[in-house]
Amino acid sequence: MQRRRFIAGAVCPKCAAMDTIVVDLDSDKRLCVACDFSEDRPTAPVKVKEVPTRVSRGISRRTETVAEPVRLMDPRSPSKNDP
Length: 83
Ligand SMILES: [Zn+2]
Prior knowledge:
With 83 residues, the protein is an alpha+beta fold.
């Protein structure tokens, strides 16, 4: 079973029908439900490159260590783990 999502306002380049283009969420392919048009995802997925450097990681870790105890000790904060 394929998971598909319609693209609102998308026009099929093959049969020119509107709102017939779906995206296959598993393969990222675009398909037309009105004809047999299918196309790989045209644009490459934008990946945020996370390049941890020793300097930035050291700073953020030190900041967390300072801020965390203050939040955790607040007794009025409801536990989100308990529904
Ligand atoms: Zn089509």
